[in-house]
Design brief:
Largest sheet of chain A: 7 strands, mixed
Number of helices of chain A: 10
Oligomer: homodimer
Number of strands of chain A: 12
Helix content of chain A: 25-40%
Number of domains of chain A: 2
CATH architecture of the largest domain in chain A: 2-Layer Sandwich
Structural class of chain A: alpha+beta
Radius of gyration of chain A: 19 Å
Order of helices and strands of chain A: EEEHEHHHEEEHEHHHHEEHEE
């Protein structure tokens, strides 16, 4: 059952939180992502070895790298005791708020599962990827689930895992702008309040609930109104030069709504036409430039595939 | 345009919160409710006069009674300056967690609007009813919106009002058990935490989001798992003798899920068959009896009409 050929897998960038869905919502982009090549080591070898990391400075000890942890956890979940060598090509900048650690984990888990004859279903790879996220950013699934499965995913619970695929309104586009500024996830997490006012919980949960409703009903006006988050986003926006201005610029340029992508510093906006999306991307980039930061824009459909063989 | 005949309107009981949807979700029941009869006073008279209140001990000053406040606010919203007399028949016990104050407000607002030739759409009566709730229980719409409009309503925001009607899975039933124990809403609100842990916000908002998804997809298993609330409900359950036991009994008897209705002490459960619903009602009543309280059960479809002329 073990593939002798190398398996090469791509997993995409993801936008987590989507405004009010802190730790709960995430969606896959079609833009850049990470690529993992997995090979079986000669019979008798065990464990995971990371042969190379290109495109970023990351540890090559398997236990300290989300690709390595996800690969090890996938082998364990499948009950397969072979040795695997990984090559990791980082297409995503670290600390950008685009789910870089999740993309590595998702690509590695999916590649290893294919390498051993695909004994696990794709959804069963989410748990190994959550274990990997736990090493760098806490046990959350809002990046790894869409990085694996594609589309827009709602994470009801992590332990035990309970996820729901949400429908994506047709034609919806996601614009991102990633400033040249690394915001370590750990630092962004430190900025979070440990407690939130009950009134803030009510507002955020109402917006999240209405966002889910808008995904089913296709009410784009409602979808845009729901992207607001005044509990988690303000603490993070303060860490991102130009972040609040970029979000404001997106709205001015006609976006349905905008907020911080994951832990930031990337900001994202939802749009429903290519013309608007282009204008929004320009506005967000200009706002970062006004704060002294170059920024890289992307425009992606909101309903993109997850990890796949390349 | 002013009706000379008396207008008699019924508005139903409502279950607010529905587990994780504190201040955000509510649905109408078909069981008991409040009835308001409105009559125009002779030309020249202005203001609202409450001629009688039957079935409960409530103030008859219009400004202190939600029926009176809603009637006054409806006249003001319509810009009609006539005098109105109301008779209020309380079919709902006060402080029961079944939206008693909301039913009075909804019935009065709808009756007065009909009396003056229905210049306002039904949804425009929600604001006058929120004003009425503000007098007794804070400005929230999770009872008044379903009491007026029927069905299952999501309140995204109160100021300005932004509400969404959610689909109700076919055949879904709501079981309630109301113990003979008054829990003033003000006291139940005092028991609320002013701050909640961020992790609690994430769990509650994830459950609420998944509950909305389950309403659209009809996934009843998911719907049941989502009724859990460990932020608001525990503080309130502690005030209700037998409350936690009644919720546990509902699950044991096969309910999809159960929680406190509004501020309590009524508990509710969702079921998808009449046989289960009957067993659940018996189990909840027995749990209250074991705590020394008589309890009144009801079984209602989950998709019931709101305020209507009778």
């Amino acid at each position: 059952m073990i593939e002798r050929d190398a398996i090469r897998v791509f997993a995409p960038a993801t936008v987590a939180n989507l405004g009010p869905g802190f730790d709960v919502l995430g969606l896959a982009l079609d833009g850049p992502g990470d690529t993992v090549t997995a090979r079986a080591l000669p019979t008798g070898a065990t464990g995971v070895r990371i042969a190379s990391v290109r495109g970023a400075s990351l540890p090559t000890e398997a236990e300290k790298n989300t690709a390595g942890v996800a690969a090890l956890a996938t082998l364990r979940a499948a009950g397969v005791d072979i040795g695997v060598e990984l090559e990791l090509e980082k297409g995503l900048p670290i600390g950008s708020g685009l789910g870089s650690s999740a993309a590595s984990a998702a690509a590695a888990a999916y590649a290893v599962n294919l390498l051993i004859g695909a004994p696990l279903r794709k959804v069963q790879l989410v748990d190994p990827c959550i274990e990997a996220e736990g090493v760098v950013a806490g046990r959350h699934a809002d990046n790894v689930a869409p990085a694996l499965l594609g589309g827009l995913i709602l994470v009801r619970a992590v332990d035990p895992l309970d996820i729901v695929r949400l429908p994506v309104p047709e034609g919806l586009l996601v614009v991102t702008a990633t400033p040249a500024f690394e915001l370590p996830t750990a630092k962004a997490r430190e900025a979070l309040p440990s407690e939130v006012p009950l009134s803030g919980m009510v507002r955020n949960s109402a917006n999240l609930a209405a966002l889910v409703s808008a995904c089913y009903s296709g009410d784009l006006g409602l979808l845009g109104r729901c992207l607001f988050d005044d509990v988690v986003a303000p603490a993070r926006a303060a860490l991102i030069p130009g972040g609040a201005a970029a979000i404001a610029a997106a709205s001015t340029a006609g976006a349905l709504g905008a907020s911080i992508s994951g832990a930031g510093p990337t900001v994202f906006a939802l749009c429903h036409s290519r013309v608007t999306a282009t204008r929004v991307a320009e506005g967000m980039v200009a706002a970062f430039e006004a704060a002294g930061l170059d920024a890289t824009p992307s425009i992606s459909p909101a309903d993109c595939p997850g990890a796949r063989r390349v």
